[in-house]
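Schema walk-through. Below, the input block comes first and the output block second. Nothing else is stored per chain. Lengths vary across the set, and this one has 251 residues.
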Amino acid sequence: MSTTHLDTTDTAPDDPRLPDSDDTIVVFTDLNCSFAHVAVHRLHETRRRLGLEGRIWFDLRAFPLELFNREVNARPGVDSEIAVLGAVEPDAGWRLWQGPDWTYPVTTLPALEAVEAAKAQGWAASEQLDRALRRAFWAEGRCVSLRHVILDVARGTGAVDVGLLATALDTGSARAAVMAQYEAARDDRVVCSPHVFLRDGTHSANPGVTAHWIGGDFGVGYPYIDDDRPEIYEELLTHAAKLAESATGGR
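--- output ---
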């Protein structure tokens, strides 16, 4: 969790990490990553503040930590991050897990698949489902591994056709896309959750935040925030808006 600057990679237009259009920002992320919860909250709030809603969209892509690490994102590590990241961005919504250990989410893959499947209903549906699932886990302590919880969260957004989403989940129509995103992120091509990419190759891993662990690694120690620059989100969104404007000839 150390890369905070904006950078531009030598990328080809068909690089699988990049968005398909200039008005879209790709965000590689997992749902039970606290740093990603901060990033997604800041992206939404900065876009709203800049008046870019409906002009810039977020393409939430899967960075499934359980596949990279070959184990569940352990609760002790997640719990150790809440007080630290909650102080960084309290309005994102946080609460320590209150249920029994056996009700804790063991996987985020079904929820990541749901976010991908919702893109068939438009960017707004996918964005709102992603944000609602994050809040359901981090602030409400709900097990977002479960099908009925995912569908109930989707229903609560008012933006997702739950019947269509249920069919997508039951047929696995978005599963291949999620696995393709995982493959695109491997071999350090995507550094961490979150990692943001713009169409021109501009990117930032864990935007604005540098951190290190004290007292042991994830699950043993706790994170210490060395630097926090939330203004980087305005830089990212402003740059994306300029790319979108140039692509449309300023219309």
